[in-house]
Design goal:
This protein is of the alpha/beta class. It has one domain. The strands form 4 sheets. Strands 8-5-7-11-12 form a 5-stranded mixed β-sheet. Strands 2-1-6 form a 3-stranded mixed β-sheet. Strands 3-4 form a two-stranded antiparallel ribbon. The chain is globular.
Length: 307
């Protein structure tokens, strides 16, 4: 009986190239969708982080009848229990971070060795997933970095410029000052930005304070509305080799009257937490007068809604 030989026909070179080309086209079509989905997920996580800060601010205000301080500065002398700290320390007990709060010595400045363990804890709420987590390693005082900072308004850190309009937060030199009450936000809580984003320095070894949320230095844990989001010249300690252009143009200055703009790695704008605890997107294209109106608590401006 004759034997039947059946052969499987192999791909020709042309057919193989066509298949590869089709796969390449499919990947090219799919990759942007995957990247867009990931960016949307990071943006959602960033919004959720800011909402946690909003809840913490409201819980603090409910307990104490006022907003937390922005920063407390007294020259680093450790004379009193409020020596050199920021709103982050004040809000730990109100954002389920009592474990960190319990190991922080409030009678010592943030940079003290006894507070190193607390400041090295990288809490997920500190950073936007587009940017962090990150650490300051430019000198011996190491600590976690963050992206969410408080609003110091349309002037410098000292808030002593003629155009300054009252802002939700400020610096208390020597621990002295009157913290803002919700009743003073007469523009409306939904019309006032309490917190927004800044971008951390490019390298953890850059001597650049932007994103140093434990540091009371100008531009470290605050933003100003002197410029619209992702624009303008920052003026602060930024002497690292990458600091002239990233995270934004910066003039290195050690004086206490610096300022920084809100910045983010989200395309087109920054996330902003309003006084009512809601989170919106402030576009780079927002008019400067509108952005500054959102930055004041009692300017009596009429503002359009954010995105």
């Amino acid at each position: 009986m004759p034997v039947s030989h059946r052969y499987r026909r192999a791909f020709t070179l042309v057919e193989l190239l066509v298949v590869i080309a089709i796969i390449g086209v499919l990947v090219a079509l799919l990759l942007p969708a995957v990247q867009s989905a990931r960016a949307a997920a990071r943006r959602t996580q960033c919004m959720n982080n800011l909402k946690q800060w909003g809840l913490a601010v409201q819980n603090y205000e409910n307990a104490l009848g006022k907003l937390p301080y922005g920063t407390i500065s007294d020259g680093g002398t450790s004379i009193n229990g409020q020596d050199r700290k920021t709103f982050v320390v004040a809000l730990w007990p109100y954002m389920e971070q009592s474990n960190v709060n319990d190991i922080y010595d409030d009678s010592l400045p943030f940079w003290h060795i006894d507070n190193e363990a607390a400041r090295l804890v990288q809490v997920p709420y500190y950073y936007c997933p587009e940017d962090g987590p990150g650490y300051w390693r430019a000198n011996q005082y190491q600590f976690a970095l963050g992206n969410y900072v408080v609003n110091f308004g349309n002037a410098n850190f000292l808030q002593n410029e003629p155009q300054f309009l009252p802002a939700p937060f400020g610096d208390f030199s020597n621990g002295e000052g009157v913290q803002t009450k919700m009743s003073q936000v007469t523009d409306g809580l939904s019309n006032t930005v309490f917190m927004a984003e800044i971008v951390q320095m490019e390298s953890e070894t850059d001597y650049d304070v932007r994103g140093s949320i434990f540091n009371n230095t100008a531009g470290a844990c605050n933003f100003m509305t002197k410029s619209t989001p992702n624009s303008g010249l920052d003026v602060c300690l930024c002497s690292g080799p990458n600091s002239k252009t990233y995270p934004g143009p910066c003039r290195n200055r050690s004086a206490p009257d610096g300022w920084v703009s809100a910045r983010s790695l989200h395309p087109g704008g920054v996330m902003a937490m309003l006084g009512d605890g809601s989170v919106s997107f402030a576009a780079d294209s927002i008019a400067l007068d509108v952005w500054q109106a959102y930055g004041s608590i009692s300017g009596h401006e009429v503002v359009p809604g954010l995105e």
